[in-house]
Write a structure and sequence with these properties.
The chain is an alpha+beta fold. About 35% of the residues lie in helices and about 20% in strands. The protein contains eleven helices and 17 strands. The strands form five sheets. It has a six-stranded mixed sheet, sandwiched between helices. Helix 8 crosses helix 9 and helix 10 runs antiparallel to helix 11. It starts with a helix and ends in an 8-residue tail after the last strand.
Length: about 400
């Protein structure tokens, strides 16, 4: 077939794929697996960050901690509304259990950070100064010159920064802030969920448009570039993995697989960012006229495993039980060794964040947690299938924020 005919055939396959989603049975009103509702994209105004800072202070007090120190990164941005970037020049948020938070930063950065951040108290240090001395002086002022206490240090802070802070604050004990920051971020506000819904909608539209462009002879890289363009055209930066045929049997792909041929598996795992929040969706399709019986059976098995976890999910369900529910379905069919990764992960400002749906994690799901459910079966040398959807835990069960693919 000529290239134009192949493109038309590919488009027909994708049209059928889109119809399978659109024509899926309407949800049972009593079911806990629900379709997403449209939501207006919110703006994260100063009041949002004020609430986050107040929650952080309350958690500091409950844990008997005196101060949180965070350097630029996701947690810093979560609390301030802006990530100025991390470099050899120290920037640090200092949040005391009581009183106004402050940011220590290079003097020439004060105006930039002030314009974008919810924090209004900034202390600049000059290039010839030791910034850790300014941190020490600021800590003393925030703590009424107390010479000791316990500081929760944000987990991703550079080790050298930790050592220098320790030397500047010898009377203070440092502990890992992860229990505090993870707890703050794991429960999503309505504004956060709305941003995630928007990112998910853009991702699904971009994926559909990309699948419709598949043509024999194109490379994984070319399709990945088309995917990124489709997301950009919809107003959100993003991209992802594109894997053809045997390459799909590698959960995270490789540098470059084969060019696309007829009657082959295509797996796309991708996401985009809206307002700082990230989607993560995977779809696996058959590019050609008729899916093989083996592909159909594997796809439907993975779909059944995903459904089992979704139907189990309730507020209070341990994360590991979600993984077990999906794994039980795949293992019972004899494919247990081919499901090689955890069932899912938390989703928010980072593409992967707590809580993780994995054996050994006894943390119980709570309303307003957002996570992926993504079972997979990977047969090296043949093909792999992964189906990944983004989910919200509600009072009544799992709400699927993305539009599920239907069984074959």
């Amino acid at each position: 077939m000529r290239r134009r005919e192949l493109m038309a055939a590919g488009a027909a396959v994708i049209a059928d794929w889109r119809l399978r989603i659109a024509d899926s049975s309407p949800p049972n009103p009593k079911s806990t697996i629900r379709n997403p509702q449209s939501a207006q994209e919110p703006s994260l105004g100063p009041e949002v960050f004020q609430r986050r800072l107040e929650r952080a202070r309350a958690d500091l007090q409950a844990r008997r901690l005196d101060l949180l120190i965070a350097t630029p990164g996701t947690n810093y941005e979560y609390l301030t509304g802006y990530n100025p970037g991390r470099s050899e020049r120290l920037i640090a948020l200092l949040l005391p259990v009581a009183g106004a938070p402050a940011v220590v930063c290079p003097a020439f950065e004060v105006e930039r950070i002030k314009r974008h951040s919810a924090i209004t108290e900034l202390h600049g240090w000059d290039e010839q100064d030791d910034p850790h001395t300014l941190v020490r002086d600021t800590v003393r002022r925030l703590r009424s010159r107390s010479g000791s206490g316990t500081i929760a240090l944000e987990s991703s802070t550079a080790y050298q920064t930790f050592l220098r802070l320790g030397r500047a604050l010898p009377g203070w004990k440092f502990v890992d802030a992860a229990p505090l920051t993870e707890r703050l971020r794991v429960i999503k506000s309505p504004e956060e969920v709305a941003l995630l819904r928007r990112a998910i909608a853009i991702t699904q539209d971009a994926m559909a448009a990309t699948f419709a462009q598949l043509a024999v002879g194109t490379s994984e890289v070319q399709v990945a570039q088309a995917l990124s363009r489709e997301m950009e055209q919809r107003g959100a930066p993003g991209g992802g993995l594109v894997q053809f045929g045997p390459s799909s049997a590698l959960p995270h792909g490789g540098p470059a697989g084969p060019v696309l041929a007829r009657e082959a598996v295509v797996l796309i795992d991708c996401g985009c960012r809206v307002g700082g929040y990230t989607s993560d969706i995977t779809r696996t399709i058959w590019f050609g006229d008729h899916p093989s019986d083996e592909f159909r059976n594997v796809f439907n098995l993975v779909h059944d495993a995903q459904t089992a976890a979704m139907e189990l999910g309730r507020s209070g369900t341990p994360c590991e039980e979600m993984d077990r529910a999906a794994r039980k379905v795949i293992t019972a069919a004899g494919s247990g060794p081919f499901f090689t990764h955890r069932l899912g992960h938390g989703l928010g400002m980072d593409g992967h964040e707590p809580e993780y749906l994995v054996e050994g994690n006894k943390t119980r799901l709570e309303p307003a947690m957002v996570f992926t459910i993504e079972p997979g079966i990977y047969q090296l040398g043949k093909f792999g299938v992964r189906i990944e959807d983004d989910c919200l835990m509600t009072e009544s069960g799992v709400e699927v924020l993305s539009q599920r693919a239907s069984k074959l």
